[in-house]
Amino acid sequence: MDEDNSKLKTKLISTGNVIETFKERGLDRQNFCVVPFSTVILEPNGSVGMCRLKGTEYSIGNLKNNTFDEIWNGEIAKRWRREFLEGNSKMCRSDIDYNNCNLCAGNNELLEHAELSEVQSSPVLKLTANFNGFCNLECQMCHVWKMPNGFYTEENFWKDARLSMFPNLKEIDMLSGEPFLQNDTYKLIDEVSAVNPKCKWNITTNMHWKLTTKIMSYLDKIEVKSIVASIDSLIPEVYNKIRKLGNLSVVLKNIDAVLDYEKDRIKRGKSSLNINMNFLVQKDNWREVPHVLDFCNNKGILPFISLCYEPIEYSLLELDKNEKVRVLDFLLSMDAVKVSLSMRVIKPLIFSLPSIDRAYYLPIMNKKMNESYKEKLNL
User: Fold this and answer.
1) What b/e readout covers 228-255, taking b as 16+ CB neighbours within 10 angstroms?
2) What 3-state DSSP class applies to 190?
3) pTM for the full model?
């Protein structure tokens, strides 16, 4: 293990930079988020959203019933923006309090381009393209693989998007089922790269595929901002339980292949892949958190440790008090940097406890956070 946690500390520095930017712009770190001013999410069933952390069920409209323009400036979208402009966040209150998701460095790179008004007249800055539900895995906590395929046609998306959306996008975010196995992914790369080669791409993937010449040739066409590998266990039997139909050895082999491709890519003057690992903490895998953070540090990839909220039967929040205390004691025993990177799990657990238990754990959590801040300054 690399004792200085150098790769992990970069995550803390990025968050700190966002806080400083908010201060400079007079924005409230507890009551502002750029996402509703920048991002649109298209789901496989025609539902339109704005924030991926809110989940597929948090819709602002559906293309089956309204046009994109009607939805983008519809009542739900305007109310969401209005709350942030007025510094009175309600729709995202618990998300911000527990996850600090509004401080995501990647999202806030769009802040300088965003039109901070309730009604948007500027083009969409970021498209999250969940075009199809098709996936080669059937993860226990996911329902996207059950969603439809082929909803987006020339008439309801592609024709208008070529004219008004593709040339103006700053970013594209690919996730939904498994994007590297969907033809629409490659169609989108062809079309956007032809008219907007500077657009940055984020791709969330289960890594359960083989890096082929075709995939490398398409990645060569685009500027990659990040590739997020969703891997919820490094223990084969646990991985098989959570990510049904999967084989961990396939994933680990592909990670190494992608890392090798990244080195070659950089030598050829292309962008880094900025590989992240998404680890969704749930009942089956919470003991793996420190090991996952070590794995990320050793591989030179960034971790994203988050809490599974739904389905509730897999969530730590369903545990009884004694079990939650056992989880917290384990997580808070990690070093300060690892605790800071696990706050999206630790904080909701603490606030789910009775007040007397909260009073015990909050000082421990805050002490660890202060230690991590000092380590960040000494990097």
Assistant:
1) bbbbbbbeeebbeebbeebebeebbebb
2) helix
3) 0.89
